[in-house]
Amino acid sequence: MSDVPLIPEHATQFPQVKRMNALLEWVATVDHKQIGMMYLFGTFFFLLVGGVEALLMRIQLAQPNEHFLSPQDYNQLFTMHGITMIFLVVMPMLLGLANYVVPLQIGARDMAYPRLNALSVWMFYFGGMILYASFLAGGAPDAGWFAYVPLSTPPYTTNVGMDYYGIGLLVSGIGTVATALNLVATIFLYRAPGMTMRRLPLFTWMVLFNSFIILFAMPALNASLVLLLLDRMLGAHFFDVLAGASPLLWQHYFWAFGHPEVYIMVLPAWGIISEVVPVYSRKPIFGYGAVAGSTIAIAFLSFAVWGHHMFTSGMGTLSDLLFSGASLMIAVPTGIKIFNWIATAWKGKIHFTTSMLFALAFIVQFTVGGVTGVQFGIVPFDRLTTDTYYVVAHFHYVLFGGTLFGLFAGFYYWFPKAFGRMLSERLGKWNFWLMFVGFNTAFFVQHALGWMGMTRRIWTYPDYPNWGLYNMISTVGSFILAAGVLLFAYNVWHSARHGELAGENPWDAWTLEWATTSPPPHYNFDQVPPVRSRRPLWDLNHPDMADKD
Amino acid sequence: MAYLSIGTLLSLLGSGVSVPAADSNIIPIEGYTEFLLWASVAVAALVGVLVIWAIWRYRARAGDQEYAPQIHGNTPLEIGWTVAPAVLLAVLFGLATYFQLTSSRSAGAGLPKGRPPDIIVIAHQFWWEFRYPKLGIVTANEFHIPVKQDIVVQVESDDVIHDLWMPALGEKMDAVPGQTNYEVLYAPKPGSYNGACAEYCGAEHAWMRPYAVAQTPAEFRRWVRHEKTLPAKPTSQLAKAGEKYFMSNTCIDCHTIAGTKANGRVAPDLTHFGSRKFIGAGVMTNRTQNLKAFLKDPQAVKPGILMPDFHLSDQQVNELTAYLEGLK
Ligand code: HEC
Ligand SMILES: [Cu+2]
Which of A329, A336, A458 shows the shortest C-beta gap to B206? Predict the structure, then answer.
């Protein structure tokens, strides 16, 4: 590797805010890379906000009978933490990354509808601002991110928080639908010549199916929010129990969106893992067809399982069993992915970059969250453990140990492309180990807490044997985890200016985004290399080992 | 043995999970639950071991050739890891369904055929009302059951959705307004069992803790007799003053005390308040000092509680405390 040519300093950069009109360039931009960055920075900001909310809760829960927060504060915090992490962090962060990467990966110049794209990112920002304005308007939402009626309607909520919830989510939700539409159109219409659907890079593939799920699931939420707002603000009776409505109606509406949402929050992360693991194992993905095909199965099944959130609501035995069966089925295509990723690393030459470490941790942690997920699909078991800290542990293993670890793998992988410089691997290793240790310390004990009868969404708890100890462990872990996240922010800030120059293709990766300069010029490609297999750059750089397709 | 093995895994140190004992609030591990947990541990461990093995065995070593063999897949293998999990899941589904459909202790959306409820539970923000239709008694927050019997509980709500959960005694079920659900409680041996409200229900969701006392049939009969007799009339000067205050104030609009004119139904029945273990659905134990603090300012003790602060004088608090403690 000694004859690597000297890497030229990159010419194009993002507009530097120091320049006068740079701010305008950001605000007025319709460039998918800049919009992607705006998503990523905005969502990272909200990650810090949601993280602070979580730490406040962890301080309150560190000991039994603690009075650091009042129940009213706590309830607003856990509600806002959930809403923030789901609607302002995980989902838009994945969309932001897709925004940046997908057009490059398919060799396109930009998204199909650049101005619609700009609208989407601003809808995300406005939605977030509306939600957080509730703090100034007399109180944040406090009925949980799931907003169960009748608790979320008068007379049981007394502040205006839930109105901000309805309007804020509606605004950002419309933006999300627009982005999904945009991604579908881009992927269908703007692929480089030769890139058939069966040669689509797996990240793009997963983003495509993710977008389909969004297109069918988000409207269910948006419509339900309108009904809730009508009930709250105009006295309609969609969910009014006294007028004969069933409170379960809202639950069906909400989870008909809410469970597909869980997959919306994980599919692109699977895509990241399916890019990262092969590249650092120096092997192609094992069983492209199975990984891609199982995603289609999941996209369909994800719409048939929402009832497993309602096994204790009294839907009736037949519904219970149907939803249970469908929920268990989803574990099969998910398992396929996990085994295929492991098989990809198997017999590879594994390079332990920070990105790869995050990806490997993803596989294990996501599996832990996955097996507890299967347990919740089983009706009588669900009735023991649901609404306890066992659930809290479960979905943090899926969404934090899974998706966010996947996102960090993606950040370390694609940062050099976006900034032309490498993230520091030394800081990266610290970043990874702090997050890995912190995450597992914070959340593994919560399985035990749930088993010991600790219910979720409680602002404090009695001094039962070991509850205080385990909660304290969890709190300590959460602070270690937070330190890891902050270190990442520092790494970005530092490496964006002082990092090693990256060059076009620092990882010897094989998808098209690595065939242009880092960062790419405004128009993305001078020339798109020919696509004759799933790994166009591999064929180009290693003609002796070219894929036969 | 089973408790020990899985319990150890779950609680890291093994001290948290054990056989349900007195004051238990722990989910017992038995039957299909144990099978399911072991199967899960096995799957997660398999993946963990494979990943660690791959990391160890296939790490790129210095001086190693740079490229791995370019393997694109292996259909029989992939079919294998599609079919094997499917079979495992089918077995799990079969077992759990069999359990759900045949167990006499499975919860659901309607009463089991031919079984009128032993207890009707009405959930309120933020306390529990227990009515025994066959025995004609009413209690709040604390309830008693005979051991080694399936107790059919009908669950309802008076306001928002709650959920009655006694971790050591059975499955949980939501209390949904406008709907009746049921669950079955079974206490394997005498003792006391802590519970919780398991569905988020507002400010004091945390302090909505039902408390169950399981008794031998003879003890239980004694308790029922006790509940059916009216509490003794107050005798001390202080308690009499307390009764007078209670009966001439708004307390009676919310609370019931059997045998008096207090017959409100929006707050806990206080007929035998003096013999209950907790105040405010678990927020404090029922001791003189605690009761005084509660009456002095309920909002300070349980912020968000639906009992107003009456700004009682210390004298009034003492009187009321004496009266209420005597309601045995
Ligand atoms: C507006 C209705 C209302 C009025 C009036 C009211 N209470 Fe209460 N009270 C409640 C409610 C509701 C609870 C249960 C709160 C909880 O635990 O969440 C309660 C609980 C209590 C408890 C604790 C019961 C238990 O088992 O935990 C006592 C004791 C009590 N009230 C005494 C009084 C006295 C004495 C008065 C009159 C000075 C009074 N209450 C007036 C609504 C009321
Ligand atoms: Cu409740």
Answer: A458
Query: Cβ–Cβ of B78/A284 closer than 8 Å?
Result: no
Q: ipTM of the assembly?
A: 0.91
> Which stretches of chain B are DSSP H helices?
2-11, 32-57, 75-102, 217-228, 237-247, 251-254, 288-296, 298-301, 314-325
Q: What pLDDT is stored for residue A241 in this prediction?
A: 87
**Residues B124 and B172 both lie in one domain:** yes
Q: Select the residue of A148, A332, A350 nearest B86 (Cβ to Cβ).
A: A332
Among A91, A89, A93, smallest CA distance to A81 is for A89
Q: Is residue B198 part of a domain?
A: yes
Is 80 exceeded by the pLDDT of residue A11? no
Residue A3 has pLDDT above 50, yes or no: no
DSSP-derived pairing of the beta strands B181-185 and B142-146: unpaired
pLDDT at B114: 74
Closest by CA position to A57, among listed A470, A481, A389, A459: A459
Domain boundary among B35, B70, B102: B102
**Taking the CA atoms of chain B, what radius of gyration do you get in angstroms?**
27
Looking at the fold, whether B135 and B176 belong to one and the same domain comes out as yes
| Structural tokens at position A251 | 């639950």
Which pLDDT value is given to residue B23? 60
Last residue of a domain, one of B228, B262, B297: B228
**Inside any domain, residue B112:** no
Cα–Cα distance measured from residue B10 to residue B26, given in angstroms and rounded to the nearest whole number: 12
Q: What is the CATH number of the domain that holds B69?
A: 1.10.287.90
* CATH code (residue B194): 2.60.40.420
Q: Beta partners for B132?
A: B137
User: Does the residue B316 lie in any domain?
Assistant: yes
A388 at interface of B, judged by CB pairs closer than 8 A:
yes
**Contact flag A380-B92 (C-beta cutoff 8 Å):** no
| Measured distance CA(A415)–CA(A124) in Å, rounded | 23
In this structure, the answer to whether residues B315 and B293 fall within a common structural domain is yes
Q: Do A466 and B200 touch (CB under 8 A)?
A: no
**Both tokens assigned to B83:** 């079919």
Spacing of C-alpha A464 from chain mean position: 35
**Domain range for residue B145?**
119-228
Q: Which of the four CATH numbers 2.30.120.10, 1.10.10.10, 1.10.3210.10, 1.20.210.10 does domain A28-545 have?
A: 1.20.210.10
Check pLDDT > 80 for residue A352.
yes
Same domain, B123 and B224: yes
This prediction's pTM: 0.94
Instruction: Fill in the DSSP letter of residue A421.
Output: B
CB contact under 8 A, B99 and A335: no
Question: What pLDDT shows up at residue A549?
Answer: 63
Beta bridge partners of B144: B213
Total domains in chain B come to: 3
Residues B216 and B272 in one domain: no
Tell me the per-residue pLDDT of B244-260, one tens digit each, with 9 for 90 and over.
999 999 999 999 999 99
- C-alpha distance from B127 to closest chain A C-alpha (Å): 15
Shortest-distance atom of ligand 1 to CA B126: 18
- Report the pLDDT value the prediction gives residue A24, as an integer from 0 to 100: 85
| CA distances in angstroms from B64 to A277, B60, B297, listed in the order given | 19, 7, 74
pLDDT tens per residue, range B18-67: 334 446 788 888 777 888 899 899 999 999 999 999 999 998 886 666 77
Name residue, tokens 């320049």.
Answer: A19
B72 and B137, same domain (yes or no):
no
pLDDT of residue A155: 85
- Strand-pairing partners, residue B191, are B214
Q: Residues 81..110 of A with a Cβ closer than 8 Å to B: which?
A: none
Q: Give A549→chain B minimum CA distance, Å.
A: 10
Given a contact cutoff of 8 angstroms between Cβ atoms, the answer to whether B127 and B141 are in contact is: yes
Q: Which pLDDT belongs to residue B18?
A: 39
Q: What are residue B213's DSSP bridge partners?
A: B144, B192
